[in-house]
């Protein structure tokens, strides 16, 4: 962003001094007669270096510019800024010699972001410059005129082209990135942002002439005025939809959400009215668009302020990025009525501010994406973890265990089934709060002993389960024995004589095993540990005399 500001300040240039006069065009006017009237002082005087509004109705307006000494006979360029839709004709005393227009890409030199006409060194530097501002429909922005050497013009032109290419590249890049995130995250907020930034870039590319040169999209010239109006309306609609979701108006400013959404619907309706062939609808749309734009801008500003004051983090991003554009729009509107004639930089500043806004809002969207991811992870953790102990619940553990079995082909896998000894007695003697505290302490101890890659879950009331990847039989028994000792060292009293302990069954995965069969064998081994005295680990070893179908479950063992 600092680079863009540096380029923008580099646009400032020194121009040759001019004074000027103007009057409205009348039937029967000739260039020689207008120049003669200027010499007699019969034209309204103005300062060409400042912005000035000229009437563009009826036959248009004559403008005469007079270079001031010192005069140097060299190649020089007349530039008209800001460029506006509609033609400006350059005359000499004998008649027209050139026509300048935004959509005209023929004939050097080409003024990017300005209308430009080149005077060769053979034309005396003191020669009067005669222009005719051809009539246009609608409002015409105020204009300023500059005369500079060809060398200064080319340097200024190259600087402008670099600056605006960078600004438009930033805006379009941010819009494309937002579209990608919209597809990946399935969040319309990113889509509305992309639409808004793209429409704003299109508006600026039309108003500065960037769309016609260097992009040379002259096929859009006949519909440029309608395209600009449609882009303005759609940009406001997309901005309203974007800020309603981005600033979370439903949560932080619910009363203002409905008017903002109504604005988003109303602007496209005006576009349809403007593009219709029904004169009444076209006139109504033209009459309504400017008031609605002003009211809409103020409404979105108010909504963002209210949302920010009520705690919307992202509303601050919107205010920081969007407020400079609103201020520049207000300045440009004031200039239409003749105010602030020396602030000719507002047009260029709007493009730089657009790039700034795109960057700020993209940072805000990145923050939104991270917030969404954090919230999603939090919800997932609440859904997957046992609310008391914090380890995986039974459903989440089963899903993770199945994935581990599928991904550990060729490696040994051990399953440990853990059941706390005499836990029912602890609950009966000390109450369920003491039992909950015991479960929490045991879960923390088990988690501390196991590796981060081991799957630990709460399988039932006092039952825990763990799956260890890449662990052979001897290692699995060592881990199980260590867990038994760790739980016993917690010294959680069951009654006056007994401490809480754990019995663990261990089963090693075979090629035909599933999660269910592994659990069943580990459960049977745990039962054997219970029968043999508790507080120990036992590897699954099925007695030959007992069939698999008749092997008792742990729930059948008396606590």
| Rg, alpha carbons | 39 Å
Number of beta strands:
14
Structurally, how many domains make up the residues?
3
Helix content: 40-55%
Are there runs of 5+ residues with pLDDT below 50, and where? 1-13, 544-559
CATH architecture classification of the largest domain: Up-down Bundle
The rounded distance between the terminal residues' Cα atoms is: 71 Å
Question: How many strands, which pairing sense, and closed or not: the largest β-sheet?
Answer: 6 strands, antiparallel
| Fraction of residues in β-strands | 5-15%
What's the CATH first level of the largest domain?
Mainly Alpha
- The strand line-up of the biggest sheet is 2-1-3-8-5-6
Number of helices: 15
Describe the global form.
elongated
CATH fold group of the largest domain: Rhopdopsin 7-helix transmembrane proteins
Order of helices and strands: HEHEEEEEEEEHHHHHHHHHEHHEEHEHE
Mean pLDDT: 86
Counting helices, strands and paired strands, the structural category is alpha+beta
Domain GGDEF: 411-542
Keywords: Membrane, Transmembrane, Transmembrane helix
EC number: 2.7.7.65
Protein name: diguanylate cyclase
Topology:
Layout: H1 2-9, E1 18-24, H2 31-39, E2 44-46, E3 61-67, E4 76-81, E5 88-92, E6 95-100, E7 115-119, E8 129-133, E9 144-149, H3 150-185, H4 188-208, H5 224-246, H6 249-252, H7 254-275, H8 279-309, H9 313-336, H10 346-384, H11 394-407, E10 413-421, H12 423-430, H13 432-449, E11 455-458, E12 463-469, H14 473-489, E13 501-508, H15 515-531, E14 537-539
Helix pairs in contact: 3-4, 3-10, 4-5, 4-10, 5-7, 5-8, 7-8, 8-9, 9-10, 12-13, 13-14
């Amino acid at each position: 962003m600092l680079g863009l500001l540096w380029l923008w300040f580099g646009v400032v240039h020194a121009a040759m001094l001019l004074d000027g006069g103007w009057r409205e065009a009348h039937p029967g006017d000739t260039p020689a007669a207008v120049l003669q009237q200027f010499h007699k002082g019969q034209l309204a005087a103005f300062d060409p270096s400042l912005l000035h509004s000229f009437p563009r109705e009826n036959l248009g307006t004559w403008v005469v510019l007079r270079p001031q000494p010192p005069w140097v006979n060299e190649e020089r360029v007349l530039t008209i800024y800001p460029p506006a839709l509609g033609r400006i004709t350059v005359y000499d005393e004998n008649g027209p010699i050139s026509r300048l227009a935004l959509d005209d890409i023929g004939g050097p030199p080409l003024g990017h972001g300005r209308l430009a006409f080149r005077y060769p060194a053979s034309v005396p530097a003191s020669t009067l410059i005669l222009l005719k501002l051809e009539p246009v429909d609608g409002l015409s922005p105020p204009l300023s005129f500059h005369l500079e050497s060809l060398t200064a013009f080319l340097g200024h032109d190259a600087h402008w082209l670099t600056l605006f290419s960078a600004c438009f590249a930033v805006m379009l890049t941010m819009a494309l990135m937002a579209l990608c995130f919209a597809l990946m995250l399935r969040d319309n907020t990113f889509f509305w942002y992309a639409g808004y930034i793209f429409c704003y870039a299109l508006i600026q590319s039309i108003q500065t002439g960037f769309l016609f040169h260097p992009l040379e999209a002259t096929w859009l010239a006949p519909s440029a005025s309608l395209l600009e109006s449609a882009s303005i309306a759609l940009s406001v609609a997309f901005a309203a939809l974007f800020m309603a979701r981005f600033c979370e108006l439903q949560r932080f400013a619910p009363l203002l959400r409905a008017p903002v959404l109504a604005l988003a619907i109303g602007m496209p309706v005006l576009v349809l009215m403007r593009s219709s062939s029904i004169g009444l609808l076209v006139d109504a749309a033209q009459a309504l668009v400017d008031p609605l734009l002003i009211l809409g801008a103020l409404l979105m500003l108010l909504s963002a302020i209210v949302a920010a004051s009520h705690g919307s983090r992202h509303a601050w991003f919107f205010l920081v990025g969007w407020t400079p554009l609103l201020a520049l729009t207000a300045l440009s509107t004031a200039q239409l009525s003749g105010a602030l004639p020396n602030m000719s930089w507002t047009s260029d500043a709007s493009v730089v501010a657009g790039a700034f806004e795109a960057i700020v809002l993209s940072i805000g969207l990145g923050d939104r994406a991270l917030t969404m991811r954090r919230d999603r992870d939090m919800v997932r953790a609440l859904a997957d973890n046992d609310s008391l102990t914090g380890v995986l619940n039974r459903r989440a553990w089963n899903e993770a265990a199945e994935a581990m079995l599928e991904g550990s082909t060729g490696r040994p896998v051990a399953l440990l089934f853990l059941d706390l000894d005499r836990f029912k007695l602890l609950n009966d003697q000390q109450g369920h709060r003491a039992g909950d505290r015991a479960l929490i302490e045991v879960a923390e101890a088990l988690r501390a002993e196991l590796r981060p890659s081991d799957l630990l879950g709460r399988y039932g009331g006092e039952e825990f389960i763990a799956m260890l990847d890449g662990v052979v039989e001897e290692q699995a028994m060592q881990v199980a024995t260590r867990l038994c000792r760790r739980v016993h060292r917690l010294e959680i009293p069951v009654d006056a004589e007994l401490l809480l302990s754990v019995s663990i069954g261990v089963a090693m995965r075979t090629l035909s095993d599933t999660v269910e069969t592994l659990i069943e064998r580990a459960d049977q081994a745990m039962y054997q540990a219970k029968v043999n005295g508790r507080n120990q680990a036992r590897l699954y070893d099925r007695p030959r005399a007992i069939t698999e179908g008749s092997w008792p479950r742990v729930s059948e063992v008396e606590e």
